[in-house]
Predict the 3D structure of the following.
Amino acid sequence: MSLRHAILGFLSATPLSGYDLRKAMDASVQHFWPADQAQIYRTLARLVADGLVDVQEVDGDTRQRKLHFATAAGLAELDDWLRTIHPVEASREPFLIKMFFGGRIGAADVCALLLARRGEAEVLRATFQGIAASIPESGDLNTVLRRATLLSGLRYVEAEILWIDETLEALK
Amino acid sequence: MSLRHAILGFLSATPLSGYDLRKAMDASVQHFWPADQAQIYRTLARLVADGLVDVQEVDGDTRQRKLHFATAAGLAELDDWLRTIHPVEASREPFLIKMFFGGRIGAADVCALLLARRGEAEVLRATFQGIAASIPESGDLNTVLRRATLLSGLRYVEAEILWIDETLEALK
DNA sequence: TTATCATATATGACAAGTCCTATATTTGCA
DNA sequence: TGCAAATATAGGACTTGTCATATATGATAA
């Protein structure tokens, strides 16, 4: 769905090969949009077919690679999508299914699940905090927005940890 | 992935038809596991094929319907899954992609997106608060857990609203 | 009595994503 | 020089989920 637009977003800044795109995504939006390599190439092909992206084979360089450029139509599509107000899409949380049916396995086992998850959340929190510390609090719009996406992840894990503690307390 | 287990969870409490299952899910786990009707029927068929669920056609009732029961193997599979500690699975947030590339449309348009989302979050928050108020704070394990899954949703929207306000502030 | 709604199940077409595998080149290191 | 790792692209098989549609019956209200 939005992989198309994520790709257009990256290409709006600079032309990239599929390989570069993957690296760029892994390094920046991975925590809210993990991208599969095969899916990137397929989506890229689709964008080209739709006229939103142009390809240019480059072999004058060290390697032959396919540089992808956003076309004018691609940029228009991107900006259109960016400005559109889409309703919040539902997300699936397998973990909550476990909580919901946790009565079957008993409070002790449920607490073990919660504690394991808390551990993971703490690692994530530390990671986010580390990265957030490296981004200045104010700056140009792009900097503020990039920091905001990171803080979003941070706020969510923080809320998760709080919720886990609250739940652990209620289970005692 | 977990729809199988969600279904087994419901059937572990009481036999249900596909139709009843859908209603039960809509009324309880919808906010963390929205289930498509077609998907429910197909998964049910799959569970039967796998020997985790038994079907019994009932027509002595007002209508002919297919009652589904969890088998012993089904319950074993469910409890196994419930006890297994799975790593946190990544979620996709199209909205954060918009934030990430929001530089293209400018601060004013980005704020509009944030405000629209804030509105939706507030509605959700009120809904969750209303339901949470109807569940006693303490009780048996099942009650505590059901309340916990609800509070999870509430904590997340609360965090979201806080994050939006924080971001709006940073954008000024 | 007729229309409409809720009940009840099911299929087809499709989209998005995952996992695995294949292939070829090129760079760097030992 | 030879081998491993990184670069670079791509297809097949599959799973999960969505959307639209088909079909049939029982209940209820106009």
About this structure: The beta strands of chain A are 53-58, 65-70. Residues 94-171 of chain A form one domain.
